[in-house]
Amino acid sequence: MAREFSKGSPMDITLQQIAAALETAQAVAIQADLQFETSIESNDAWDRANAEWNVELAYLHLIVLTEVLDLPLLREELTSARNAARTAGLLEELADPDGAVHLRHLATPRRVRRALQATFLTESSQTVTKDLEAIIRGCTYAITDRTVFPSAPDSENVVHRRIEAVLRCVFPDLLHKPRLAKPIKNFEPDTGIPSIETLVEYKFISAPDQVDAVADQLLADTRGYTSKEWHSFVYVIYETQRFKPESEWRQLLRACETAANSSVIVLTGEPARGSSRRPRGSSRAS
To answer: 10-42: buried (b, 16+ CB within 10 Å) or exposed (e) per residue?
Structure first.
């Protein structure tokens, strides 16, 4: 049952409403980052105007939320930071040690959003990620069901599309092939879920000689990657028969020190075959 916050607050608000407001603020900040990146490449005034709009909107969402929650100190911090940003320029740049350029004035909204999330939403991101893992593990039967699909998955793309269709029912903010504000060389994530700050990548193995290549891809994809928007990586490895146990994949991540924010889920399906379903309207030969 959702708690309500009424003591000292101008209005009652549920945990679900707080979560929705924080997710919206995060989505707006991500959109500002992407529009800013686009404006650098295009040098287009419209892209810059949209980025400015969303930077300010990120502040306003959180100012309204802190007003509703009766948090005057945080509201004052946000208001002061917003005024400073408007004076200095909403798209003022800040370069990180790697030389990548970021929006300086999104730092305060991000810090406040995380503080609110840690205070009011007691379910940790690790718990939510484990819920995500449970959902993905439960997909094995659904994505190989011959009464729904003509055959078992026969490629990485098919696995991606079928699992993503299930996840979208649970995570409505799911992004297909999300753009990264700070791209990773030779890596384009398959699925992004902003509400739990998680990227999902799918791999398909149908022969023993593909195992080593997939292992190399896992290690190359996320090694050294840091981001303000994405904090967890989930790799879904669909194998048509048993090639390598999940425990060995996890050990691989631990040995290469990438296990802190990454996890592996192995789904063992079946080899793809021709359709076993008869066309609609057909009948057995008597």
So the answer is: eeebebebbbebbbbbbbbbbbbbbbbbbbeee
> H helices within the chain, ranges in order?
15-42, 45-68, 72-88, 107-120, 125-137, 139-144, 156-170, 211-222, 246-255
Question: Which CATH number describes the domain made up of 125-268?
Answer: 3.40.1350
Looking at the domain 15-120, which fold is it? Four Helix Bundle (Hemerythrin (Met), subunit A) (1.20.120)
Q: Which residue has the higher pLDDT, 181 or 215?
A: 215
Spatial distance between the Cα atoms of 205 and 188, rounded to a whole number of angstroms: 19
What is the tens place of the pLDDT at every residue in 117-172?
Answer: 888 875 544 445 558 888 898 888 888 888 778 888 999 999 999 999 888 877 87
**Predicted model pTM:** 0.55
